[in-house]
Write a structure and sequence with these properties.
By secondary structure, this protein is mainly beta. It contains 1 helix and 10 strands; from the N terminus they run αββββββββββ.
Length: about 120
């Protein structure tokens, strides 16, 4: 069994600035996973955003806390705790914290497809 949380030394060591407006940690990555690229935790301060971008892998954002707006492609919707948003390979996406509290998510990423 492999057990990790945000206080684990390996997880704390991976802290990075995520897409301009967030802070993220890799909970699990390809060192631990066989069919996924990573599981990350990200937080976004009030009125900040994860700046729009495209990734070469499929992702799922799982909203843990806070309120926000999620854009995937041309579609925009309000998101809140318990929501899971699928982001297809290469699709533009952006997440904005519209609330007054920290916004937190889990990000699950698939492996980059072979070309």
């Amino acid at each position: 069994m492999l057990r990790r949380n945000l206080e684990h030394p390996e997880v704390k060591a991976t802290r990075y600035r995520a897409h301009g407006g967030g802070v993220a940690h890799m909970i699990l990555d390809t060192r631990h996973l066989q069919t996924l690229m990573f599981l990350a935790h990200a937080s976004v301060a009030p009125k900040q955003k994860l700046i729009g971008h495209r990734d070469p892998m499929e992702e799922i954002y799982i909203i843990q806390s806070g309120e926000g707006l999620m854009q995937v492609g041309e579609e925009v919707c309000e998101v809140s705790p318990g929501d899971a948003i699928h982001i297809p390979v290469g699709q533009f996406h952006e997440l904005t914290n519209t609330g007054d509290e920290e916004f937190t998510i889990l990000v699950v990423a698939g492996l980059i497809p072979d070309e």
